[in-house]
Amino acid sequence: MDTVFIEGLAVDATIGVFDWERRIKQRLLIDLEMAWDIKAAAKSDRLEHTLDYKAVSDRVAELVASSQYELIESLAEEIAAMLRNEFSINWLRLRLSKPGAVVAAKNVGLLIERGQRGDV
User: Fold this and answer.
1) Sign of CA dihedral 11, 17, 18, 20
2) Strands 91-97 and 109-115: what pairing?
């Protein structure tokens, strides 16, 4: 099983439960690992045979930037569902970080896995 990854995708979004958070954009960081069999792409050297990480990045950024969730948990579930549905990803690990949310912490967030990791 192979893994395509995107690390540190930064997107500004409206996210949070407090009134002041609903009036501003906050920077979110997204790390993704996605199961994908790269053999066909390696053999053909053609973009259409692989998981296009640019297309994935653009779609995730579009979804996050237009979202209005209060909780990062809800946003993480929407991102995971969209990726699995639109890109036919069997397994993914998503780390969604909200740096600055806790002043005394370098970073806070969550890590979720969805799907089956096995052979793709």
Assistant:
1) positive
2) antiparallel
Q: Is 43 one of the annotated active-site residues of the chain?
A: no
Which one of the listed residues 25, 39, 43, 98 is annotated catalytic?
98
What per-residue confidence (pLDDT) applies to 119? 60
All domains of the chain, ordered by start, with CATH?
3-115 (3.30.1130.10)
- The whole-angstrom separation of Cα 95 and Cα 110 is 6
Average pLDDT over residues 1-9: 96
Helix, coil or strand: residue 59: helix
Look at residue 63 in the predicted model and tell me its pLDDT: 98
Q: How many residues does the chain have?
A: 120
Q: Name residue 33's beta-bridge partners.
A: 5, 93
pLDDT score of 74 more than 80: yes
Q: Judge whether 99 and 107 are in contact, CB under 8 Å.
A: yes
Please list the residues that pair with 32 across neighbouring strands.
Answer: 6, 94
